[in-house]
Amino acid sequence: MFQNKMVTPAIPERVYTLCKIVGKKAMSTSEVKEKMEPSYLNQKSSYYNDYRNAAEELQLITVTDNVLSVAVDASVLKNMDTMRSYINGQLNQFREGQFYKVTKAYFDMGEEILHGEQNVANMASLMTLKTGISVDSMAMRAWRFWASYLGFGYLQDMFVIPNADTFLQDIISEAEFEKNKRYSIAEFLEKLRPHSDIIIDSSNGTKKFSFGVSNGLRTLQDAGAIRMEYILDQEDTWNLYHVDALSANETVTNITVLK
Fold first, then answer.
1. Is the pTM of this model over 0.70?
2. Which residues of 31-42 are buried (b: 16+ CB within 10 A; e: fewer)?
3. How much of the chain exceeds pLDDT 70, in percent?
4. pLDDT at 38
5. For all residues of the chain together, what is the average pLDDT?
6. Which residues of 104-116 are buried (b: 16+ CB within 10 A; e: fewer)?
7. Is residue 1, in this structure, part of any structural domain at all?
8. Which stretches does DSSP call E strand in the chain?
């Protein structure tokens, strides 16, 4: 799902359910499959291998001699939100996978994404062109589930509106910022690396946040989670994506994490 090709059966809910089952005690793969896909249902298709592989890729579980065991602390599997935060801290190891490259390309498109195809399944050829790897419509359907769950945007039918507020909140929380301390934009971005690389290119000479990242930062500020400031005479400045109604809040030199 993350190392190579994205697959639709490996949805977040199935991965979480499998991990919760194994979290109670180690089980054989056949036992877990029976709990996830009971034989009495006589299902024609089995999705078990897809979501089990996803859980293994993410190092949520280990598989030894066909026995599945949880590989993370119980706190990671407390709920879907805690699992999401953990996964967002793991994405950097999948830089060569479809999910990482498609997410990066999606955000790199900026506001242009709003004016094109509104069904992500029909964006496969475009993503193939932009990522340089083969991406099909089934992979894009799988991407939309995980992009929404991991906090890269909001689902609207078959479209994902870019807004990285939840993803950014997760990696900010893990970066151990000192609350109420004013950080220069360079310090702020450096503390988020390498996890932020999937949507923010800190070496970008333009020093301009993409549409989806700008949406996320503005949403976090509106929620009282961060405060963005423009202070005169600061050496390093970044610009948020221009929005006519918000033109007074576009240049950022400092960010304070409030909660």
1. yes
2. bbbeebeeeeee
3. 98
4. 92
5. 94
6. bbbbbbbeebeee
7. no
8. 27-28, 61-64, 67-70, 153-156, 159-162, 182-184, 226-229, 238-239, 251-252, 254-257
User: Which of 124, 143, 161 marks a domain boundary?
Assistant: 161
Separation of alpha carbons 112 and 105, rounded Å:
12
- Domain holding 154, by residue range, is 85-161
Q: Is the pLDDT of residue 171 over 90?
A: yes
How many Å apart are CA 191 and CA 196, to the nearest integer? Answer: 9
Distance of CA 177 to the CA centre of its chain: 20
Q: How many residues does the chain have?
A: 259
Which is nearest to 195 in space by CA: 226, 216, 171? 171
CB proximity list for 201: less than 8 A, separation 6 or greater: none
Residues 165, 154: Cα–Cα separation, whole Å: 10
**Between helices 48-57 and 12-24, what is the axis angle to 10°?**
80
Is residue 172 included in any domain, yes or no? yes
DSSP 208: B
